[in-house]
Amino acid sequence: MFLRRVMALTVALLLSLTVGLAAASAEESAAFQEVLKERVAKFWVSPNFARDGTVFAITESWPEVGSAPEGFSLHRSTDGGKTWTEVRWLIDNTYRQPEEIASVHDLVFLPDGALMLSGTFSSGEEFLCRSVDSGRRWEKIETNSGALLNLEAAGSNLLGVFRIPRQDLTVLRVSFDGGRTWSDVRTDVIGYDGGLAALDSNTWVAVLDGGKVAVTLDGGRTWHEAGIRLAGISAGLREPGRPVQMIWGRVAGCVEPDGTKTAVACGPGASAQVFISRDLLRWEPIDQAQFELRPKYSASRVISVAAAPGGLIFAGTPDDCVLVSEDYGATWKPVTEGVSDEILDIKSAPAGDSVVVLAATQDGLLRMEYRKQQEAKIPEQQPGEKKQGEGERQPDEMVAPPVKFVVGQKTYRVGDRVFNMDAETFTEDGRTYVPVRYLGDALGTEIKWDGATQTVTLIKNNVTVKLVVGNKVINVNGQSKQMDVAPLVRGGRTYLPARYVAEAFGYRMGWDPAAQTVSVTK
C-alpha cells in the first residue's frame, strides 16, 4: 500500500511538473526582438500586411541629449518588419536631406496601393505628398488648409485632421478626390496619430478634445458619444502664448471575420484605463486588477493599444511590458521578454496563423510573432488505443446537441450550455435572423467575411456556404438557390436567415411560436 501511494504521488508530481513546464514554455514563446535599432518616431503597417509584408517607419536624428531632433528619415520593410532599408526623400523630383524634414505627421495606405504622407519642411512649409511606387518618389498636393496632423483611409475616401493656422482649433475633414479638396466634418477631433480610427468607409471612432470618444456609423453625418472619458497627459513643455498640448488617448480597432467590429480605447493619464467595445455602442472598462503586474504597486498605465481579429488586444505600457488579451479584454497576461523600455506605440497585423506585433520604444522598434494559446490540445494516440473510426462513430455521425436561439434574447443554448451574445435574435418578414458569428459558432463552422463584396462564407467539412448582404441567393458548394429573404446588417452586426443556413449544413430547424424559439437539430 505504501509503495502504491509513493508511486501515485510521484506520477502526480511528474504530471504537475510537465504541465507547469508546458505552461511556462507557452508564456515564454511570446517574445519581442529588436528589428530597427534607431529612435522610431512613428510607424505604419500596411492593411494588406498578410500579402505584402509592408511597414514604414520614421526615425529621428538626435545630435545630443536634451536637444531637438535635427532630421527625420524614412525606412521601409517588405518582409513583415524583419529587415529595413532607408528610403531617400525624393519629393517633386528633388532629393531632400533628413534635416530638411522638420516633422512627419502621418502616413496612410490607400486601397489603390498609393501612399499619402503629411509633414512639415524645415522652412515651416506644410506638405501633403502622394506616392504610387512604395515611397520611392513623392509628389506634393496643394491643400492650403493648415497642418494635416492625422490621416486615415475610410474606404476609398481620405480623412484628415487639420490644425487651423493662427487658431488653437482642429478640424476633421474628408476628401473624395485623393486629398485635393476637403469638406469639413466636425471641429473637436484631436490631431495626432492614433486619435482617429476608420474601420470602414462609414464607421469611424474619434478621440475628442477633453478626452471624450465619439463614433459615427454613417460617414460623419451623425455622431454618438461613447459615454467614456480618457485621462490625458501633457505632450511636453508649454509653448509661450499657447495652451498646454495634451495627449488624451488613443483608439484602435479591427473588423472580425463575420464583419462585426471591435474597438479599443486607452487613456494614458490613469492606471489601467482601457475600454473595449464589440458593437461600437457599449464600451466596457477592463478589470484594473488584471494590470497590477507587481505586488504593492498600482496598475500599469496604457500608452497605446492595438486590436486583431479573434479577441486579441495588445496594450503598450511604460513598465517594460506589453499586456495581451486573447478574449476581448476579459483576461490579460504580460509579455516582457525582449522589452526593456517604455512602449510608445504598438500596432498589430494578422499574418497566416499568427499576429505580428510591432512596438516602438525610445531606442528602437521591436517585433513579435504572437500565436493564440490553444485552450485544449488533442492528446497523442497511445499504443493500444483505437484509431478514430475503429468501432467508433465519426463526428458527423454522432448525435449533435440541439441548438436554441430565443427571439429578443442575447443568449443561445447548445444542449445544456448557455452562451452569451452581444446582439439579439429577431424575426422579420416571417423569418428568424441570427447574428452570423453566433450561428456559425453554434454549428461549428469556419466564418470568413469579405467587406468589399459584403459576402459571408461559412465552411464545415466538405460544405461551403456563401451569402451576400442584400442578396436573396444562397450558394452551397457552387450551386445557387433562391431564398425569400436576404442577409442584412443591423446595428453594425451581420444577420443571416437561420433556416437556410442550417439546412445547407444538413440540419433541421424547428420553430416554437409560443416560446419564440428556433431549434436546430441534426
From TrEMBL:
Record carries keyword Iron: no
Keyword Transferase: no
Biased composition annotated in UniProt, kind: Basic and acidic residues: 374-396
Span of the signal peptide: 1-24
Copper amine oxidase-like N-terminal domain span: 415-520
Gene3D superfamilies: 2.120.10.10, Copper amine oxidase-like, N-terminal domain, YVTN repeat-like/Quinoprotein amine dehydrogenase
Keywords tagged on the record: Signal
Annotated spans, Disordered: 374-397
Chain ranges of the Sialidase domain: 40-208
Protein name listed in UniProt: BNR repeat-like domain-containing protein
